[in-house]
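Re: the multi-chain job from yesterday

Posting the exact lines I submitted so nobody has to dig through the queue logs.
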Amino acid sequence: MLPAVSLEHELVRRALDGDGRAFATLVEPHLGVLYRIAHRACGNRSLAEDAVQDALALTYERLGRYQPGTSFRAFLAAHAVKKAQTLLRGERRRRTREDASDAPQSVPGPQDLARAAEAARRVQAALATLPEKRRAVAMLRLDAGLSYAEIAEAVGTTEGSARVLVHMALKELRAQLADLTREEETSEP
Amino acid sequence: MTERDPERDETELRALFDRTAEAPDGIQLTKLKARAMDLPGRRKRSAFWLFAPLVAVAAAALGVVVLRGGPAPSSAPSAAVAPPGLSESVARAAPTPAPALASSPAPSAEDSDPELDDPDVGDLYAADDDSSAGDLLGPPDDDASEEELDGWLAATDSFLEDG
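And the result, structure tokens for all chains:
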């Protein structure tokens, strides 16, 4: 049996040669994380699917730069976050227009569902207010679950800088979403 | 005022993010995997279409070069092996010897056709061509001797008389 790095190296080589099955095998374990990041950014299922596809296309385009042995999840998540940044900017502009038009907000479904949707919208809005790099590290930490070393790899910085960026991002998010996190605490048994 | 524990903040935020995250269902995962599988092939195809016009232009240019330059080498040997004063009109007037001339290397002294070696006969064949004969055969050179000129005139006259 091939060691993980050799297998990954072989899959990357075959994918670069045009082997679609090899590329799918490489990305399959991470599709859930990619989708989660994309959906966080746009809040729409079909848009999220398209965003994941765009992120995969970008990943494939740059697959030659990937160094086997480093975190492929970080490599992939970095491209997903890049795509999410664009989506979030668009979403923020759209929300500004909607707020300006004073349209009544109506969320269909039971109350719990409505509250969850509202919480998701609040998280999305809070992320959109962060500076680009802090937003990226916040999603990489909280949605992709990357370590500081992996975040550093993904955003092209040192591990120490990644720690500082994450700390600042979480502090800002905590300030904006304090009521939601408190709600989380009180709802826990 | 007490300082908040960053680890606790992170745990709370992580719980909030997990609660508000959307996970793909089985159908979506299958769809995404299929799209991923299609990507390398699509890249190859798009690369092909990107370079296809260049390849087509290059192929067309090569085709033109081959078509223009192609017949020259094949006709050159037949002209080269033809005895002086003999042109493609020979092939038309005397179809039997012509293919042999065109396809065989330059005839040696032993196997050359004595009839074709005769300058008069050559001239007669050449005169049969009404378009290019004059250019190809023409009268003897300016520096030809009187005897050569007379011979040429006599051969021409006799051909015209014979029809």
